[in-house]
């Protein structure tokens, strides 16, 4: 009898573990995992626990979007705050730590529109507050990501092209100061950021000042 009880208990544990594994890898018809679902429905309080449980940060849905893409496009500030907390918590981690590697990788994943999470944030689709975008950019800069390898698919626009197009002057100052090489980096049409058609006088002044400073 004791042996039978033990077998039953082991079976329950096995089934529970199997169910947990299925939840971790399972996705719905839109190829969303539970982390996507949390960001779709603004269930921000589940993001931290889900990430700790191993839900894939970098998994993409049917539109090529990660959960962070979804949070940004939906304009769910609370969800973005949770991601920013994750970014902050991983700053002290070794480069080879799985969480650190996945968060860095997150910045290089494109959705089917050809945009990374930083591109979508700068575009302002979800009206994300500027301080949040600035924190995302600051993390990317501190992580020394290769911004020349983060061009928009289809146009070849750099992050600075995009910043100029959307007149994000504060972000332009950050990028020009920290990544001056983007000032001269052309898109596929051969246009550098100062060639952007809709550039404002203030933005033009920021870029010209940065170009002058980089020569001295």
Question: Which characteristics define this entry?
Answer:
2 domains, Serine Threonine Protein Phosphatase 5, Tetratricopeptide repeat, 216 residues, mainly alpha, 11 helices
The count of helical stretches stands at 11
Question: How many distinct folded domains?
Answer: 2
CATH topology of the largest domain: Serine Threonine Protein Phosphatase 5, Tetratricopeptide repeat
Q: So what's the oligomer here?
A: single chain
Which sheet architecture does the biggest sheet show? Answer: none
CATH superfamily of the largest domain: Ankyrin repeat-containing domain
Characterize the overall form. elongated
**Straight-line N-to-C gap:** 85 Å
Shape-level CATH architecture of the largest domain: Alpha Horseshoe
Beta-strand percentage range: under 5%
The strand count comes to 0
Over the alpha carbons, how many angstroms does the gyration radius reach?
21 Å
- Listing every helix as H and every strand as E from the N terminus to the C terminus, the arrangement reads HHHHHHHHHHH
CATH top level label of the largest domain: Mainly Alpha
| Low-pLDDT stretches | none
Give the helix proportion (percent range): 55-70%
- Residue-averaged pLDDT: 88
């Amino acid at each position: 009898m004791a042996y039978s009880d033990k077998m039953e208990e082991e079976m329950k544990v096995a089934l529970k573990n199997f169910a947990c594994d299925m939840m971790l890898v399972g996705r719905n018809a839109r190829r969303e995992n539970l982390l996507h679902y949390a960001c779709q429905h603004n269930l921000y309080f589940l993001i931290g626990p889900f990430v700790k449980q191993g839900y894939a940060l970098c998994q993409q849905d049917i539109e090529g979007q990660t959960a962070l893409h979804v949070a940004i496009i939906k304009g769910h500030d609370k969800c973005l705050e949770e991601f920013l907390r994750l970014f902050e918590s991983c700053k002290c981690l070794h480069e080879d730590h799985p969480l650190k590697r996945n968060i860095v990788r997150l910045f290089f994943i494109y959705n089917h529109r050809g945009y990374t999470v930083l591109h979508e944030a700068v575009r302002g689709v979800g009206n994300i507050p500027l301080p949040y975008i600035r924190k995302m950019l600051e993390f990317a800069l501190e992580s020394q990501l290769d911004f020349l390898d983060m061009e928009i698919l289809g146009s070849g626009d750099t992050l600075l092209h995009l910043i100029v197009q959307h007149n994000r002057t504060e972000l332009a100052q950050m990028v020009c100061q920290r990544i001056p090489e983007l000032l001269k980096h052309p898109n596929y049409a051969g246009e550098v950021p100062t060639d952007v058609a809709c550039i404002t006088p203030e933005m033009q002044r920021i870029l010209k000042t940065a170009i002058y400073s980089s020569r001295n």
